[in-house]
Amino acid sequence: MLSRSINTSNLTLLILVTYSIFMAGFFFIPNAVDQYKFYIAAVFLPGLFLLPKIGYVLRENRLWIATLVYLGYMLCSSFWSNEFSIATLWYDLRLALYILAFLMITVTIDLEHGDRIDSILKFTCICSGIAAIISIPLWYKTNPFPDSRLIGIGTLENPNPSSYVYGFFSVLSFYYALQSKNTLLKAALLLCTSILLMFVLFTQSRAGILATLVSQLLLVIFYLRNKRVSYGISAIVGAAVIFYMLASPWMLSRLADISSPQRIHIWEHALDLIAAAPVFGSGYQTEFLAHIPDSTAVYHTAHNTFLATARDGGLVGLGLQLLVITFAFIAGLRALASNNNPIYLVLLIFGLLCMLTATDRMITRPRELWIIFWLPLALLIARETCRTADKLTKRPSPHNPP
Fold this sequence. Notes:
The protein has 15 helices and two strands.
């Protein structure tokens, strides 16, 4: 990734270490509460000393500004919730500040130490691969194979979030393998990619499998410039996946299980709430309860980030969210055009594919959204900051015209 130097400090070097531990913590910290506390104590609080400087750098970054406006509006929508609570607003505000700090710290690391952010991400890829190697036999030692849905070790306590995060690093590992000129490192990263892909398949998460395969195929198509070879490999991989699913009734049945009609009922309920308050939404604190007909099951999430935003913030909130995503896509396309680097755009697509059928509110504790959406967004904000800096340095001075 593009390296850019603003200023080097011992504090930034310390945060490089704690940030790396935090990222690996998704796989090796025993529970989400401990990871949350570690982030606050070891990343957020030290990072506060870096924020004024990077905040000044980001003042003209439209992707960053759009993100601030979106999060600010969603927090403000709390005031017209059915049951407004100052305590809940304070809690959500703290979470939003943690997310913004995560974005700013990631941007700082990328701008000051572009090579180090690559090292951190490669390190996290290896950590995720090791966690997958441990998780698969550990899970199926006490759960039926292959019927049960795999959940990895660490802070992710559900098959779907597990598939998203492990799939994300499978894509990232594949990218680094394609880029690497070191044969041994390339082989290690390809092995890591395969193990992580196997993990995603065992989670039986439709969105996770789809996002991982689509993203990896996009990388194949980009890096193999020979169109016939690209299409051939894509066809072979696609045929292999279809054959595997047809030959494995347990997988096919899981991918088309009863969760599909359940999600349709959930989405219908979310759409009803949107229709009831279409412009400004029902408020960020309004509780979402979707009752499934002929069942005792009650769902508290919309299983679609965009429906959740429209439900809470109305069309205004959804418009602001889509504005953020539009600016992010533009930044990804610019990175592709200027640096010939597709990974930013691919990672953004990966996250959006997952968010179409899962997740709910965007303001959360460190969970899967921090990896599949906020991390790619931070990297894209850094790219836009570099582009703006390049334009300023190339702009002729009014006192010294060319």
